[in-house]
Amino acid sequence: MAVTKLKRKGLRNKLNAKARVTSIKDLLRKPDIRNVDVDAIKASFGEKAEA
Fold first, then answer.
1. Nearest-CA neighbor of 20 among 10, 8, 30, 12?
2. What is the 3-state secondary structure (H, E, C) of the chain?
3. Tell me: the pLDDT tens digits for 1-51?
4. Which superkingdom (predicted)?
């Protein structure tokens, strides 16, 4: 019994996996917003306006 290989389905599966990996990498590349000190940034704007 012959076995046929589904090339287009395999290609789609590989593309979906690659897209998933790249999206996860993009999410990990972005800085975590919780580490930003908002009050310090606001204070620095006030210092620049006064100077």
1. 12
2. CCCCCCHHHHHHHHHHHHHHHHHHHHHHHCCCHHHCCHHHHHHHHHHHHHC
3. 678 888 999 999 999 999 999 999 998 887 777 777 888 888 888 776 665
4. Bacteria
